[in-house]
UniProtKB/TrEMBL annotation:
<dbReference type="InterPro" id="IPR008462">
    <property type="entry name" value="CsbD"/>
</dbReference>
<feature type="region of interest" description="Disordered">
    <location>
        <begin position="1"/>
        <end position="41"/>
    </location>
</feature>
<comment type="similarity">
    <text>Belongs to the UPF0337 (CsbD) family.</text>
</comment>
<protein>
    <recommendedName>
        <fullName>CsbD-like domain-containing protein</fullName>
    </recommendedName>
</protein>
<dbReference type="Pfam" id="PF05532">
    <property type="entry name" value="CsbD"/>
</dbReference>
<dbReference type="InterPro" id="IPR036629">
    <property type="entry name" value="YjbJ_sf"/>
</dbReference>
<feature type="domain" description="CsbD-like">
    <location>
        <begin position="5"/>
        <end position="57"/>
    </location>
</feature>
<feature type="compositionally biased region" description="Basic and acidic residues">
    <location>
        <begin position="1"/>
        <end position="35"/>
    </location>
</feature>
Length: 71
């Protein structure tokens, strides 16, 4: 996971949690839901970044194998 991806997803998770808590304290259900949604978005970004890294690793491994087989 790149540093930018990690910062972006962490920002969403932290900001979402803050909004969720604010919504609970002020009894603002819309704000609470917005926070939960933003937190879920941050977690989804983590998963997407992990998947992207896994695909990149797989492609790199296949390229290495093909290069090795060509020699």
């Amino acid at each position: 996971m790149s540093l930018d991806d990690k910062i972006d997803s962490t920002k969403d998770k932290v900001s979402g949690k803050a909004k969720e808590v604010e919504g609970k304290v002020t009894n603002d259900k819309a704000r609470e839901a917005e926070g939960k949604g933003q937190g879920i978005l941050g977690k989804a970004k983590d998963k997407l970044s992990d998947a992207k890294d896994a695909v990149k690793d797989t492609v790199d491994n296949v390229k290495e194998k093909l290069d090795k087989d060509d020699k």
